[in-house]
Amino acid sequence: MRSNLRTARAGFTIIEILVVTAIIAIVAAMAIPKLQSARVAADESAAIGTLRSVYAAQIQIQASRLIDTNGDGMPEYGYLGEMTGGIPARVTGAGNAPAAGAVGVDELNPSVLVSGLGAVQQSIVTRSGYLFQVFLPSATVAGAVGAIAEDATGGKIAAPFPDPINGSLYWCAYAWPTQRGKTGVHAFFVNQDGQVMKTRGTVIAYEALTAPPAFDAAYTAPGDLSSPAASNGVVAVDGNQWDLIP
């Protein structure tokens, strides 16, 4: 009798453990998607905030007349490496042509952007689950303004340099997730107009270093940084729809 009682009690205890384990598994299965969604939302919010900080820095660098590579008195926009003070800013060279700044002399001090955005690798900065890249304009050719990315480690220390005239008018920046669906879903864009836009990438999705956006992805004309950015239902160069973020 006692043996049967002990067996019954042991069996009941095992059942209890199994029930509790099953409940924990169910709760975890319900909670993980919510946690993942929360992380995506947090990373996307941080990316939007970073692009707005980049825009503010571009406004400051131009208002302070910190870069003028042809000496015409029209200040130009900057790269991430320059704005964070990690790479010497471009200067006016011989014949009023753009030239690389001198190390230890031409770094912006104080900088106009947080140093964390100066950790440029392969012309891109990784921060909080997103990749960031800034493009500055080249000279106008056949009515279109191309773009030049910063050097692999940031800034611009060798030709080709951005065009000084267009460099006072245009720039753009993109942010896209390092792991689409895990660190973010949307890609984001901002330019000199200051309006941050987003796309879900339903036609072309952007992710990591393997699938970055081209400089003209969010514009209305291929290869033209001077064309309007696509918004309000207009299909962009990349085939995606980009929407304004309030």
How many separate domains? Answer: 1
Average pLDDT for all residues: 92
| Strand segment tally | 9
Q: Specify the structural class.
A: alpha+beta
Q: Runs with pLDDT <50, length 5+?
A: none
Element-level helix/strand string: HHEEEEEEEEE
Overall body shape: elongated
The helix content, as a percent range, equals 25-40%
**Helical run tally:** 2
Tell me the fraction of residues in β-strands, as a range: 15-25%
**CA-atom Rg in angstroms:** 25 Å
Distance between the termini: 75 Å
For the largest beta-sheet, the strand count, sense and barrel status come to: 7 strands, antiparallel
Description:
There is one protein chain. The chain is α+β, with helices and mostly antiparallel strands and 246 residues long. It has one domain. Helix content is 27%, strand content 17%. It contains two helices and nine strands. Strands 3, 4, 5, 6, 7, 8 and 9 form a seven-stranded antiparallel sheet that branches. β4 and β5 form a beta hairpin. The longest helix has 62 residues.
In short:
By secondary structure, the chain is an alpha+beta fold.
Keywords:
single chain; 246 residues; alpha+beta; seven-stranded antiparallel β-sheet; two-stranded antiparallel ribbon; 2 helices; 17% strand
